[in-house]
Task: inverse folding
C-alpha cells in the first residue's frame, strides 16, 4: 500500500466516534423522533458514562467487517456493554411511550463489537490490494 499511504491524513480525535449500535431510519420523521428520544435520555447516558468515574476505553488490534470496513477494536468493557444495553432499552421505552414509527435496530442481532471505523470502502480490501500490486 506504499503509494496509497502518502494520501493518509491524521484525524483529529474529536472527529472520531465509537459505534455502540446502528439504527436504520428511513424517513425524516423517524430521524426527528429518534433525536427527540435520545435527547430525553441524554442525562441518563451522561450519568452512566461519568459515574462513579468516566468510562475508560482501551483499544487493541485492527480488523475488518466483511473485508470492506477497517476498524480498531475496543477491549471488552462491562460498563460499555451496560451503556449499550441501557440505550437500547430506553429507546424501546421511548418508542412505546411516544408511539414512534418503527426504529429498526439494524445489525444489532450480531455480536456486539465496539469499534472505531477508520476506513470504509465499497470494494473488498483484497481486490484493492490486488489492484495496487498490478
Result:
Amino acid at each position: 500500500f506504499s503509494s496509497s499511504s502518502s494520501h493518509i491524513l491524521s484525524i483529529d480525535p474529536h472527529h472520531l466516534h465509537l459505534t455502540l449500535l446502528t439504527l436504520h431510519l428511513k424517513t425524516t420523521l423517524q430521524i426527528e423522533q429518534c433525536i427527540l428520544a435520545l435527547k430525553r435520555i441524554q442525562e441518563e447516558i451522561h450519568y452512566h458514562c461519568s459515574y462513579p468515574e468516566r468510562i475508560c476505553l482501551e483499544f487493541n488490534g485492527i480488523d475488518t467487517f466483511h473485508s470492506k470496513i477497517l476498524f480498531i477494536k475496543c477491549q471488552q468493557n462491562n460498563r460499555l456493554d451496560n451503556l449499550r444495553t441501557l440505550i437500547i432499552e430506553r429507546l424501546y421505552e421511548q418508542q412505546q411511550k411516544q408511539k414512534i414509527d418503527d426504529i429498526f435496530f439494524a445489525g444489532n442481532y450480531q455480536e456486539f463489537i465496539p469499534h472505531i471505523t477508520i476506513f470504509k470502502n465499497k470494494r473488498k480490501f483484497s481486490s484493492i490490494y490486488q489492484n495496487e500490486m498490478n
